[in-house]
Specification:
By secondary structure, this protein is α/β, with parallel strands linked by helices. The protein has eleven helices and ten strands. The protein has one domain (3-335): Alpha-Beta Barrel (TIM Barrel). The chain has helices at 39-51, 67-78, 107-121, 140-152, 166-178, 202-209, 250-267, 271-280, 295-302, 311-321, 329-335; strands at 3-5, 12-14, 16-19, 56-58, 87-92, 126-131, 156-162, 184-190, 212-216, 287-290.
């Protein structure tokens, strides 16, 4: 397993991160199709991932209404893994329960959310605590001050955000710098070879500011594994059973899958390995989060770490998946056409 520094923290995390939204959720119409793994299966999966070199585990309070955190914490203990040897990232900010204030990034909600997550995880601290989504009702100053208090209190070690725009991350980190608070060291974003939207604004900012990037949606809900067919019906019992909720260009995506299948056939490996490997080749990416419902799926995704794509393969994949020109990106590229890279 390879490792990379998270932002500018000095904390090393594995290039592959085990996502745990497949843990728990039995009987829930949204979470059950993701996996609904019981404790025994969760413990086996965490143990296998750790043995393979993964030290990074991602969860959130909303995953299976808190069950994911409970099972992850229990799995780490049952697998006999020292707490100090793993990096746990969890998130808060989406709606939990029915209380009107049980959502968002206010001081009150964040303080309560961290306490609840620590209890479910069975730990004294969270390595990375993320705001799960932008809260337009709460001033960012309030959010960053609350997060700063959690860091100073030792309950949280590093901060991050998820599903934020580039300007929102810069706003938050500008406040942190001004008030000498801990900043967001990592963002978790929707990114895959078929959904490269963050390359317009976020990626240049993350590289410039040395903010880490972890990925959700790397396989686009299974579409990039090749199991979905162009024009075919969506398989029953999957997250897409009720319709596609992650937006993407369908025809363009299947063109990308076709290109990946050609490379995968030449290497005699599954398509999913190519999709994950492509992300690992992007300099901005710190770690790729993946979930699994079986140990076989886990092992298959782990194998992507060893796929070294050639320059020709990367050029082929970039040509079929590149974003269409958009202002001011095309104008900036034109201005620097005859100038060297910095």
């Amino acid at each position: 397993m390879k490792h990379k520094v998270l932002g500018r923290t000095g904390l090393l995390v594995s290039r592959l991160c085990l996502g745990t939204n497949t843990f728990g959720g039995k009987g829930n119409p949204y979470w059950e199709p993701l996996g609904a793994l019981d404790q025994k299966a969760a413990t086996e999966m965490v143990g296998r991932a750790f043995e393979a070199g993964i030290n990074f585990f991602d969860t959130a309070n909303i995953y299976a209404a808190g069950e994911s955190e409970e099972r992850l914490g229990c799995a780490i203990r049952e697998a006999g893994i020292p707490r100090a040897n793993v990096v746990i990232a969890t998130k808060a900010g989406m709606k939990m329960g029915t209380d009107v204030n049980g959502v968002g990034a206010s001081r009150g909600h964040l303080m309560s959310a961290v306490e609840a997550s620590l209890k479910r995880l069975g730990t004294d601290y969270v390595d990375v605590f993320m705001i799960h989504q932008w809260d337009r009702l709460t001033p960012m100053e309030e959010t960053m001050r609350a997060l700063g208090d959690l860091v100073r209190g030792g309950k949280v070690r590093h901060l991050g955000c998820s599903n934020f725009a580039a300007w929102q991350i810069m706003l938050a980190n500008g406040i942190a710098e001004r008030e000498r608070l801990s900043r967001f060291e990592v963002t978790e974003a929707y990114y895959s070879i078929a959904t490269r939207d963050i390359e317009r604004e976020q990626v240049p900012m993350l590289l410039h500011q040395n903010v880490g990037l972890t990925i959700w949606g790397a396989l686009l809900g299974g579409v990039l594994t090749g199991k979905y067919k162009r024009g075919g019906a969506l398989p029953a019992g999957t997250r897409f059973s009720g319709g596609i909720w992650m937006p993407f260009d369908t025809e363009r995506t299947f063109d990308i899958v076709d290109a990946m299948q050609a490379i995968a056939r030449a290497r005699d490996i599954p398509v999913a390995r190519i999709a994950i490997a492509w992300l690992l080749h992007q300099p901005v990416v710190t770690s790729v989060i993946f979930g699994a419902r079986t140990l076989a799926q886990l092992d298959e995704n782990l194998a992507a770490i060893d796929v070294a794509l050639t320059t020709d393969e990367l050029q082929t994949l970039d040509a079929v998946s590149a974003l269409p020109p958009e202002y001011p990106t095309w104008k900036i590229a034109e201005a620097y056409r005859d100038r060297p890279d910095p």
